[in-house]
């Protein structure tokens, strides 16, 4: 008999293999130059809707040039940990980041490494972790890491602040750390940051750790992201990613004060002894950070928002239901069973649009769906064609029986 974990792995394998068999997972575009959010797949041009580079900066010639310049100046790698001799670009980058986020920052090799370096230093032994059920997997990894110190954790319903408050009252002698996303990566809905800031004021034992990877750059003043745009608090830490709208690689953690930042830099192992960020990556990040501060980002944000609003308006016109009715670049159409999702995604690919077929365990088994990333690479004409094509496919692939199943799974009318 399979254990619970073995059964979960079996289900994951079945879901993933089904998408692989239909040519939806682990695809490799043709080895040709990418252009404006498009690639060729087996000789056929495809518009990439799986991208999280919402502002379209990954092909910006200024970032490409900065990456090449850094490689020529400092090499393809700088193989010395920061505790000994760091690449000079670190100081320049972190100074620019502190201007963007208006707070002390630490750059890191990845968002996940930032979590693993930061949380073990700030979370005390007498603490209890609470995670939103839709929190990104890297936050769950961090909770598993902290479990080695005997730190307990509890997963609660999505955005269920009443459950969070119950956990606070249930652990009267412990600090509570709530680990969440700022903008959730599947449905594209927000965490209730304003309400959480009020809870921080009411509950002095509550701490908030926000992974705002998908909120970075495309929103907020100078691209500071969704969470910090809502407000700040001495017990709120915010992590950002450079691999989404920022147009680079790596990430950073934003701290409420210099003392906390310096403590994590000194004691958070991966920040000083882990693999350093390569010079070309640092150069790219420096160039992007400068664009965040010179007004370029604001124009890119406005362009993206116009495209998001157009997409949402057309979905209403064609009666395509979105799970989150808000103006974010992550658009999710709930389709219920995996086979329905795969069929819709496959049909869309045949029409020249590659979107993400979301499967278990990224979402519950009966809440799979189509995830579309709206980016600045899309033209208005492409958005019109995308939505019209989607509407035709959904009429064909979603039967009355399937529609009833979707309505029950998502508790809303399809």
From TrEMBL:
Keywords in UniProt for this one? Acyltransferase, Aminotransferase, Transferase
Domain Aminotransferase class I/classII large: from-to ranges: 45-389
Which cofactors are required for activity?
A: pyridoxal 5'-phosphate
Q: Name one GO molecular function term.
A: transaminase activity
The answer to keyword Metal-binding applying to this record is no
The reply on keyword Transferase is yes
Q: Which SUPFAM superfamilies match?
A: PLP-dependent transferases
Pfam families with a match to the protein in the record = Aminotran_1_2 (PF00155)
Q: Which PANTHER family match?
A: CLASS II AMINOTRANSFERASE/8-AMINO-7-OXONONANOATE SYNTHASE, LD36009P
Name the record gives this protein? Aminotransferase class I/II-fold pyridoxal phosphate-dependent enzyme
Tell me what organism the protein belongs to. Thalassomonas haliotis
